[in-house]
Amino acid sequence: MNEVKRVAQLLRERNRIDAELSAIIGRPALTGHLGRWIAAQVFGVELGRGDLSAAS
Q1: pTM of the entire predicted model
Q2: Do residues 34 and 25 make contact, with C-beta atoms less than 8 angstroms apart?
Q3: Alpha-carbon dihedral of residues 47, 52, 55, 56, nearest 10 degrees?
Q4: How would you class 52 by CB atoms within 10 Å of its CB: exposed for 0-12, middle for 13-18, buried for 19 or more?
Q5: Where are the beta strands (DSSP E) in the chain?
């Protein structure tokens, strides 16, 4: 399989995984959203749904 086909295959797989993660956490599957969701689950807190960039 050539590299372009392999990259296309990996992107399709990543998109499928991101869609599944988004469905679970209710937010885009971005690092910040995933980290906040994991922290909320681990520490049992409810985090606001505000824009993550507002904190910086």
Answers
A1: 0.75
A2: yes
A3: 150
A4: middle
A5: none
